[in-house]
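Following up on my earlier thread - several people asked me to post the actual chain instead of describing it. Fair enough. Here it is, all 124 residues.
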Amino acid sequence: VQLQASGGGLVQPGGSLRLSCAASGRIDSNYDMGWLRQAPGMEREFVAAIKGSSSTTRYADAVKGRFTISRHNLQRTVSLQMNSLKPEDTAVYYCAARRRSVVDLATTSTYNYWGQGTLVTVSS
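Reply from S.P.:
Thanks for posting it. Predicted structure:
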């Protein structure tokens, strides 16, 4: 399984970015997929995730109402639309996947597969 994230960049506060993650290998509807991020000097934290077998989504409180996660199983892609970006959203964003599980989507330790990360910088 390989995950390739893209779409990061520099954006002004209040702006938008769309991250994409292309999956290869066995990724299908039997896998939950998500986005996590890590800011400088901080631990990796959960951002958003979506179940493989349904449209159930989960968001961190910090991004709820601003970010939207979606997936396209036929294309094996998952996207993260980020609106109303804030400087505190600055981080390296990682695409991640796990085998379908009943464990809370926000449990970062359950994700087994990771992409290489894409940097998002929110600054004026």
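The mean pLDDT is 93. That should answer part of your original question.
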